[in-house]
Write a structure and sequence with these properties.
With 398 residues, the chain is of the alpha/beta class. The chain has eleven helices and 19 strands. Helix 2 packs across helix 4 and helix 9 packs parallel to helix 10. InterPro entries: PUA-like_sf, PUA_sf, RlmI-like_PUA, SAM-dep_methyl-trfase, SAM-dependent_MTases_sf.
């Protein structure tokens, strides 16, 4: 089958030849290859102005990122064979890294499958398709996942707002196996139950697993505050490390209910106390009550989702970190994260330092973490390096 060519404007191929795989609509020679002639998700061959062959990909005329490169080998167009090859490569990395099958199996562009996320919970898979190109190949992708992994269940978690940018309908559906309640995963000897149909993202945040494991070397003390706790990944880790009083704050009553049942599952419920409410309001209340903690864990959702949110989002990060630092005992540990791509590592570090100044604290940065290696960074695509986690000691300003 002949794949339609997509021609770039003059001198627009440099970023692609350096390894990036996104093509913006203003980089296309729309006279030679009018975008309106392409269907959403249609396979294309990307060519430079001089008709140098660059790669196989797919197009979406309705999206700002109007095409994505999937293969740079002319002999390997988009096909079931290519999906199988990519999945085998992704699985080989994770099996090299992990002894138990709980991880992100496919991380989009970094695994050569832009628009596809797959999280593995043992013999169950949560799949998220975010682009029209992957939506078009959905049946082939699901067949390839079944062939490579023989899963008992697959849930499609297509309830992300990113799909709207591609003109796709959001939704959640079971595409393999029967809906059978909770899924169980293990992390660092703890067991967690998640709801694959309703939890945040795909039910769990595998990207922080390495950073949660790092907590052990620092000693968390007796009293720990876990802010934006979700179902207890950080808070229960702190309790398992010996903290006797862990306060877990989240806006979601459902998440805190699940956190409590996860605490019971691990014999930690006597050490863990849920507190429902807005993070900023709860932190202010705790400060006004004179509460103090040995460790404060801050793992909020992204405050900067688009570049236009930068000013407000930066202010929110500074406010949250200042409140967290005001609740720390002298010499206490602050573990703070940002998953906003638009806030770089240096910018985040600066914001936390400013929060320290305002809180009257002198900070020592002990370690910086990023997403785990099951979320590999594509060296040519900065957008794939999104998670920053800072481990800091907070001392009195004097």
């Amino acid at each position: 089958m002949h794949t339609q060519p997509l021609l770039l404007r003059k001198d627009q191929e440099r970023r692609l030849l350096a390894g990036h795989c996104w093509i913006y609509s203003n980089e296309i020679d729309t006279k030679a290859t009018p975008l309106k002639t392409f269907e959403p998700g249609q396979p294309v061959e990307i060519l430079s102005q001089s008709e140098r062959w660059i790669g196989h990909g797919y197009a979406n005329p309705h999206s700002l990122i109007c095409a994505r490169i999937v293969s740079r080998e002319r002999a390997h167009p988009l096909s079931p064979a290519l999906w199988l090859q990519r999945l085998h490569e992704a699985l080989a990395l994770r099996e090299r890294l992990y002894t138990a099958p709980f991880y992100r199996l496919v991380f989009g562009e970094s695994d050569g499958l832009p628009g596809l996320i797959v999280d593995r919970y043992g013999d169950r898979l949560a799949v998220q398709i975010t682009t029209a190109g992957m939506e078009r190949a959905r049946a082939e992708i699901l067949a390839a996942l079944e062939q490579v992994l023989r899963p008992q269940a697959i849930v499609l978690r297509n309830d992300t707002s990113v799909r709207e940018l591609e003109g796709l309908e959001p939704g959640v559906e079971h595409v393999l196996g029967e809906p059978s309640g909770d899924w169980i995963l293990t992390e660092q000897g703890l067991e967690f139950a998640i709801d694959p149909m309703r939890g945040q993202k795909t039910g769990w945040f595998f990207d922080q697993a390495e950073n949660r494991a790092r907590l052990a070397r620092y000693g968390v003390g007796e009293r720990v505050l876990d802010v934006c706790s979700y179902v207890g990944a950080w808070g229960l880790r702190a309790a398992a490390l010996g903290a006797s009083d862990v306060t877990c704050v989240d806006a979601s009553a459902d998440a805190l209910e699940r956190l409590q049942s996860n605490a019971e599952r691990n014999g930690l419920s006597a050490r863990v106390r849920p507190l429902q409410g807005d993070a900023f309001e709860v932190l202010r209340q705790l400060r006004d009550q004179g509460r103090r903690f040995d460790t404060v864990l801050l793992d909020p959702p992204a405050f900067i989702k688009r570049r236009k949110d930068e000013k407000d989002g930066t202010a929110a990060y500074q406010r949250l970190n200042r409140l967290g630092l005001e609740l720390l005992e002298p010499g206490g540990l602050l573990v703070t994260s940002s998953c906003s791509f638009h806030m770089g590592r240096d910018g985040f570090q600066r914001v936390v330092q400013q929060a320290g100044q305002r809180a009257g604290r002198r900070l020592q940065l002990l370690e910086t973490g990023q997403q785990g290696p099951d979320h590999p960074v594509h060296p040519a695509i900065q957008e794939t390096a999104y998670l920053k986690t800072l481990f800091l000691r907070a001392l009195p300003a004097a």
